[in-house]
Specification:
single chain, alpha+beta, Cyclic Phosphodiesterase, Chain: A, four-stranded antiparallel β-sheet, 9 strands, about 25% helix
């Protein structure tokens, strides 16, 4: 009998100078006093497709249908701008945007989405917007400080990196935050 696993497909942010810049802006955002849960540096990534709880026995189907069909060369992404979902004035999620390379991430998302559906999972309803989540907002205290920072950093460049793989990640939720583990890596190139 197999258990359940919580999984998603992502591009990890693993370039040390870029991670350092994201860490600094995350710490600046966290220092506003707004109640929030910052994302741990080692967990920063672009989510291509969140899948959720699935039977462990279905992981191979996801790999075969959603990851193996990705045929693409390595490419560069540029991380630019601080923003918020659903909007920068009442954010629940604080993120860094992707400019250059966003089209390639959208293409990967389309391939993955088709594969996830073929594997029998429900379609994603939300439109895909490539981004790196750096914090989840839990309240509105001091919100004006956060909004000011987001506006002042909306066009700031945080760096570029090469995307050389797409990964199926397992997420184990703990009191201290999620622990991510790579289950499968689809190399590009």
């Amino acid at each position: 009998m197999s258990g359940m696993v919580r999984v998603f497909i992502a591009v990890d942010i693993d370039d040390p100078p870029v991670l350092g810049r994201l860490e600094r802006i995350r710490d600046t955002v966290s220092s506003t006093g707004v109640p929030m849960k910052p994302v741990e540096t080692e967990n920063m990534h672009v989510t291509i497709r969140f899948i959720g709880e699935v039977p462990e026995s279905r992981v191979e189907d996801i790999i075969r249908e959603a990851l193996e069909p990705i045929e693409m060369e390595e490419f560069r992404i540029k991380l630019v701008g601080l923003g918020g979902f659903p909007n920068p004035y009442r954010p629940r999620v604080v993120w860094i945007g992707v400019t250059e390379g966003a089209d390639k991430l959208v293409e990967i998302n389309r391939i993955v989405e088709r594969g996830v559906r073929r594997a029998g999972f429900k379609p994603e309803r939300a439109e895909f917007h490539p981004h790196v989540t750096i914090a989840r907002v839990k309240g509105t205290r001091n919100l004006e400080k956060l909004v000011k920072i987001m506006i002042s950093y909306r066009d700031i460049e945080f760096g570029e990196m090469t995307v050389s793989s797409v990964r199926l990640k397992k997420s184990t939720l703990t009191r201290r935050g999620p622990i991510y583990e790579t289950v499968y890596e689809r190399r590009l190139g």
